Amino acid sequence: MPIIHSLIIAISATLITFLVALPVAYFLIRRHTHFGWVLESLLLLPLVLPPTVVGLFLLQLFGKFGFGGRFLALFHNYSLIFTLSGAVLATIIVVLPIMYQALKAALLSVDSNLIEAATVMGATPFETLRLVVIPNAYQGLIIGLLLTFCRGLGEFGASLMVAGYIEGKTDTIATSIYFSIQGGDTSTALLLSGVNILIGVCALLLIHLLNQQIERKKQQL
Amino acid sequence: MTLAIAIHKQMNARQLNFTATLTEQIYGLMGPSGVGKTTLLRIIAGLTTAETGRITCQEQVWFDAAQKINLPPKTRRLGFMFQDLALFPHLTAQANIEFYRRLKAQPRQVDTEFEQQLITELELEAYLTRPVTQLSGGQRQRVALCRALISRPQLLLLDEPFTGLDDQLRQRAIDLTKNVLAKTPGTQVIIVSHRRDEITAFTDNILALER
Q1: What is the pLDDT of residue B185?
Q2: Which residue of A8, B96, B103, B119 is surrounded by the most CB atoms within 10 Å?
């Protein structure tokens, strides 16, 4: 179960952060607004905070007496605390800066003349993103997805604060390794570590291949 | 067609001041490197904004700093051939030329007959299905020209269109471009070049930018 839970959390968090970070990064690159740096700083804030601080903040917000917690309680007394959804939310907050940075780098790698050429021809910002930017930055975007997925897979602190460790319900690879060691079950800890390392190595191999593809593309131009 | 330009822009340590009323079909814009030729084209296209001034095309105000009017590039009905051509590297030559067709809110109508005529005139038939990254410099230059002209723009801006071509290819490209421009009399053209011979091949109307 911990492997499945970790995969669910990492995949959900990766997809959600991608959908959030892509339009935000594109907007901030194209429009130099006065509040841009504020928004960017907010997005990057979890990167400079311990995950436990992020977890504590989420507990305060979505706990029984928090604003978010009271709001969610209106829907059949729903609560994010001690649930897999809570772990997904915590992971989203922790991995968002990584996704944002990776997507920003990928989008900035697209020649601005291509964007301007599309603009002169009448493309809307969304059409330019869909027809020009994404096709020319997709390797970088996939690298962002992979890095975020790997980080999400290993997320520990914030998830543990929000979702706890409930076997069969909220246990993940990272929390299971910790509690296996605490309980003296080294073999389970090693097995789970091996799975995590294997997934990580595969992701890094893919990133390496994509980077090679990017280099080849640069030489072609 | 009349294009009236009077703009002022601060560029790092220099100032770009330009005033002209263009009524002929083709103009050449010359000047030393870094004087602001490309910046001037970008201001005309609406890709860069001048601090002060006014640009009108056929009585339509494109830019007026005092009145805070600044039409977006797509409503200015112009074609822009960038110095590095700016062809979309993930697309074939044909898909680059027909990029307009992929746009939903496209105010300009692409005339299929005209498109075919342009492709024939620019001798592009044999390369249409090839990705632009596999084309030679001369072929890429012709694809970029075709793409800039396809929507019958009222103004065509050519920024150093023959840069990077050897002498033989340059002459061939100039001949083909002259031929095509002669068949699009409704399009006013501004050609930027640092080579006088490239400009005089098209026109005697030379606009000079000086430091």
Answers
A1: 83
A2: B96
